[in-house]
Design brief:
The protein is α+β, with helices and mostly antiparallel strands. Helix content is 22%, strand content 32%.
Amino acid sequence: MNSWQVGSARVTRIEEQVGVGGFPPEKFLVGLDRATFMELLPRMPNHYSVEHDRLVSSMHSWIIRTGGKIVLVDACCGNHKDRPWMPRFHQLDTPYMQNLEAAGVKPEDVDIVLCTHLHADHVGWNTRLENGKWVPTFPNAKYLFSDRDDARWNPRRMQGMDPNRAAVYEDSVLPVVRAGQAQMLEHRSHTLGDLLTIEPSPGHTPGHVVLKLVDDKARALFCGDVLHHATQVYHPEWNSAFCEVPEEAVKTRREVLAWCADSPALLFPTHFAAPYVAAIRREGAGFALDFVAADSP
């Protein structure tokens, strides 16, 4: 189980799946230049499949142990979810829960679940199927997510929503709300204990948030989908095709990279392939990365 120490906090990666995506690089990253991309590949091994001509990405959660609490960041795709519009998310049967327990965490141990946004691959394990009904996976947790994202994806607040998108909310968010476990966040900073701060990071979605961990000089940032792929460190102007507010997404991405480079802080993305975590530094007028291996396998 891959873990990293950040000050007094312990961060562990909980894998759901790693593999090739459904789009060639130019289709997934808007504005990508193939020649530039190929030149960068030696800096990011494991992030592209030549055989498939597809980006390689991971679906994983982060478990943060700090102050006697357990925080889970982003809940992947989930098992048994009906996602016919996205084969990689559809009717999965992964060992995610076994991986969680292998990390020493039972569902009832989780105190907080933070959804950086409400896309299907970040909310799936919010719920699990029990006797034919979707119920919260983490029965003692408070689930945190942005009110702006709720307004965007809640079919009761957004009329005329795509039925597929509405279904994600119905099976992976609404059961948490009905159970009284949801806390919707206003568009501002929120502290979680002494070390963690949730901050707005709009662009990929209107209400996207990031999580900062600051323990004296030890720092980390959990970026959700502010960055999808390592090549965006070098070219933050390359948005994913799923960024809803493109200009704001680029601005937020540059701000996140600058904070990580200048703090300095480790970057904990949700979709980077192995070795998953990166130290960001300035290189010329832009940024570069150095991957940081886990300190326990």
